[in-house]
Amino acid sequence: MKVIQCINDIEALKAFGQIPKPLIQVIEHDFLQLYKAEDRETELFQFYLPYQQTLILLEAGDAVIKLLDDSFTLEYVERHQQGLIEFYRIAKRFGHEFQLFYTLIGIHDEDTEQWLFEHAEWNEGRGDFSV
User: Fold this and answer.
1) Which tens digits make up the pLDDT trace of 34-69?
2) Cβ distance 106 to 113 under 8 Å?
3) What's the Cα-to-Cα distance from 50 to each of 38, 61, 110, 123, rounded to whole Å?
4) What is the Cα–Cα distance from 97 to 84, expressed in whole angstroms?
5) Contact 19, 57 (CB under 8 A)
6) Angle, CA 2 vertex, CA 10 and CA 118 arms, to 5°
């Protein structure tokens, strides 16, 4: 699991070289949208997302269902394709804010993939994201 709270975290994902560029671009876009939504005049390189708004990249082996399976806080699971890359974008309520989670399709165990697939099917067209 990779937690993104600042622009340097995104730059680290780029430097890591194992995350597909299209997914990093989506994460960066969401981060910049949150940055622009702030009323403060904080410089981009000094801006940190508060914990309840962190962006989280889920990786193989992460306990996805344990993190997300709460019908009171899970807002939606969206399935997306960006170029040749398929991923899920997941919103979980945290108080009055949302945490966004991202994960590539096909990297988790069978039960997790099925859980993500079923939630994305149920949520199709209900999210707030378009590529």
Assistant:
1) 999 986 788 999 999 999 999 999 999 999 999 998
2) yes
3) 11, 25, 33, 27
4) 31
5) yes
6) 110
